[in-house]
Write a structure and sequence with these properties.
The chain has 6 helices and 13 strands. With 348 residues, it is an alpha+beta fold. It starts with a helix and ends in a 23-residue tail after the last helix. Helix content is 28%, strand content 36%. α3 (234-254) runs antiparallel to α4, α4 packs antiparallel against α5 and α5 packs antiparallel against α6. A hairpin with an 8-residue loop joins β10 (156-166) and β11. It folds into 2 domains: 5-226; 232-325, Oxygen-evolving enhancer protein 3 (PsbQ), four-helix up-down bundle (Four Helix Bundle (Hemerythrin (Met), subunit A), Up-down Bundle), CATH 1.20.120.290. Bound molecules: heme C (HEC).
């Protein structure tokens, strides 16, 4: 296999793509044309994919390949593809093994303006880590130097460009790629696109090729992201958390121990919402629960207000310690003079 697999064989199927993040614009499979838009600064993209190719000689592909992209600094993305490759020739045995590793760096040197496209480059280097003799790798270092442009117009995005592949080895030729893609976001998460690309000959006896390609991408995490965004943030959760903490105090003081237990239980439940919608804060909340809410429950079970009062005051230190530690030293819980709930705090 002398060209990059994607470009040299008919793309028969692209299997499930699992991803954590996706730009509104889509480049990469099912498209051969690329774009200049790097992954956002400090964001990751992780894909697990499988590619299948079919021609006269049989099947080949990757199963799976792992692709990782990371926005290292603004406008620069580092890129890795680590594939498990296979060949299943029609007339000989199937072979499996680690394939050629792809490394790259996408750099956008001109950002998009009202009237001008964004421009970038995405040099790739294919390392011959796959076993060439068994057909699992090219056996040579290959290098691609491209220029990519992109411009958006409302729901439409168009990108393209071209580059030059250095392709050493007997019977191999350096070759060129140019391509252009047009896509439209039909509705949130669904993108339809089409591209046309041309490749020059990469091996002796080969022939130049022009291809049309259509693709459809559905980002099934888009709906989930929308759902996550309308969940209450920690600020909203904390208002209830604070109220329940206050009311647990007055219920315990009034001798309504069941209500005190109920308020702490509800505080734990709303805290779980906070842990789910704001995962980075989850560890701190769990630690707080164990260190400060558990002793409150013990005191409530014992119906011991002195013990409860002591644990409650320690808890206030814990609340405000976390606020200060998270960069909110001005958010300081103080026990209100009266309960915030209209419920009776008296022992029924
Ligand atoms: C794991 C850390 C953590 C712990 C523990 C914690 N908080 Fe908070 N709290 C926060 C953060 C962070 C905010 C700021 C909210 C935001 O991010 O918008 C906050 C905000 C608040 C607010 C202000 C809400 C508003 O917007 O008006 C109250 C009230 C509050 N916390 C009460 C408490 C009480 C009472 C406790 C203890 C029983 C507690 N918190 C424990 C992290 C914590």
């Amino acid at each position: 296999m002398t060209k990059r697999m994607l470009m040299s064989r008919e793309l028969v199927a692209t299997a499930i793509w699992i991803f954590t993040a996706v730009n509104l614009v889509w480049a990469g499979p099912p498209f051969a044309t690329d774009d200049p838009e790097p992954v956002e600064y400090e964001h990751w993209e992780v894909y697990l994919a499988s590619r299948l190719f079919h021609d006269k000689s049989g099947w080949s592909g990757t199963s799976p390949e792992l692709e990782v992209n990371y926005g290292t600094i603004p406008n620069l993305q580092l890129h890795l593809i680590a594939p498990v490759s296979f060949v299943a020739p029609r007339h000989s045995a199937r072979l499996f093994g680690y394939g050629d590793t792809e490394l790259g760096a996408k750099y956008r040197f001109f950002e998009e303006t009202e009237s001008l496209p964004q421009v970038g480059t995405f040099p790739l280097i294919e390392l011959p880590s796959g076993d060439h003799k068994r057909g699992l790798g090219s056996g040579h270092v290959q290098v691609f130097l491209p220029i990519w442009l992109q411009k958006g117009f409302g729901p439409w995005t168009t990108y393209g460009g071209g580059g030059y592949w250095f392709n050493p080895g007997n019977d191999n030729h350096d070759w060129g790629f140019i391509g252009w893609e047009l896509q439209r976001e039909v509705f949130s998460g669904l993108i339809l696109g089409a591209e046309i690309f041309h490749e020059t000959t990469s091996e002796t006896g080969g022939h130049p090729d022009t291809k049309l390609n259509g693709g459809l991408i559905y980002d099934f995490t888009e709906q989930l992201k929308t759902l996550a965004n309308i969940q209450p943030g920690l600020g909203t959760v904390m208002i209830e958390y604070g109220d329940r903490y206050t009311n647990a105090y007055y219920a315990a003081k009034g001798g309504n121990w069941d209500l005190a237990a109920y308020q702490i239980k509800e505080a734990r439940e709303i805290q779980e919402v906070g842990e789910t919608t704001r995962p980075p804060r989850a560890a701190g909340l769990k630690a707080f629960e164990k260190a400060y809410l558990d002793p409150l429950d013990v005191a409530i079970k014992a119906k011991n207000f002195q013990q409860f009062d002591k644990a409650f005051k320690a808890g206030i230190q814990g609340c405000n310690g976390c606020h200060a530690g998270q960069g909110f030293p001005y958010i300081k819980y103080e026990l209100p003079k009266a309960p915030t709930s209209p419920l009776s705090m008296k022992n029924p």
